[in-house]
Amino acid sequence: MTTPRLFTPLAIRDVTFKNRIVIAPMATYSAVDGIAQDWHLAHLGRFALGGAGCVMVEATAVTDQGRITNGDLGIWSAEHAKPLKRIAAFMKQQGTIPAIQLAHAGRKGSMQRPWHGNGALTAEDLARGDKTWPIVSAVAEPMAPGYIVPQALSVADIGQLVQDWAAAAGRAVEAGFEMIEIHNAHGYLAHQFLSPLSNKRNDAYGGDFAGRTRFPLEIAEAVRKAIPKGMPLFLRVSAVDGIDGGWTMDDTVAYAKALKARGVDVIDCSSGGLVGSATAARVKRSWGFQVPYAERVRREAGIMSMAVGLIVEPALAEDILQKEQADLIAIGREALVNPCWPQMAEVALGRPMKDALDGWTVQYGWWLKLRERTIADIRADEVR
Fold this sequence. Notes:
Blueprint: E1 10-12, E2 15-17, E3 21-23, H1 38-49, E4 54-61, E5 73-74, H2 78-93, E6 97-103, H3 123-127, E7 136-137, E8 151-152, H4 155-174, E9 179-184, H5 189-194, H6 209-226, E10 233-238, H7 249-261, E11 266-270, H8 291-301, E12 304-308, H9 314-322, E13 328-331, H10 333-337, H11 341-348, H12 353-356, H13 362-383
Parallel strand pairs: 3-4, 3-13, 4-5, 4-6, 6-9, 7-8, 9-10, 10-11, 11-12, 12-13
Antiparallel strand pairs: 1-2
Helix pairs in contact: 1-2, 4-6, 6-7, 7-8
């Protein structure tokens, strides 16, 4: 049979992804003071065992004030990088590209974990041991009424944050990660600068498109310089705010062109989140609803794109790639349901299970081949 495009390799700079499936960064809010725990090794390790071409560590704060919640991962010191090194090494041992998403929450920081309310910290949260910290943004306006009012970043503060991103990227490289993604989406700090709804500055870092993109582009330049030339650099963007007067698809295309010129290799196309939860957008949900964003970025900006969002069926993932709407497919919550989604997708797209098992880790593959033979014998007996 012809190999499905989903399972063809993709070379980006000096790194080759064995297939086009990326396990998207999914926040689990389970770190302690920003330090990865055994939970993270088990959580991410099962995806690495599941056959994805790349597994990405969840949003990891570049400074302590850049966390969303007290449970966020961080990489603002060498101490934070140590347990991440173990995770990256395990991923690589399983044949997957270890990746990490670097982030800063901005005005969405110092908040509750989602299952505790997803709002400002309360006395009950503090009694649980959570702590508050000062938050920052483009201007001193909260995300919504009732939320913490951030401090507006000065030009000097912005310069320091650019350095913080570069330093975090350097630590990620030292920890063994082979791809880095910059988080510019879902209402977090970089997005707060991009959108005219949240960036009302009147200096060089606000106003028109050039001003509002200046800080995020400086981050991209600094991270690119901090990592090896052969390392892929991804960037996640909310392609639209989904709110009147906000960031638009035309903005995203223009921004993608500027990012490409600064050494970004892939645009990870999500949407929304400027106000409310991370993926809150006034965009109707449907299967693969964000694919048109990835398609337009790829076509009009001339840069590789990754599609994400309600891509749950292997046939849809394959169709997206066959139609050249994207170069990579990011799988998120579907992998929580089935960590072996990539391996089972291969079977769903036509490869016999007994052959597909050759690609599984031997500790699973050997037993499952025996299982296949046993099932075949049982079925043969049933026919007789």
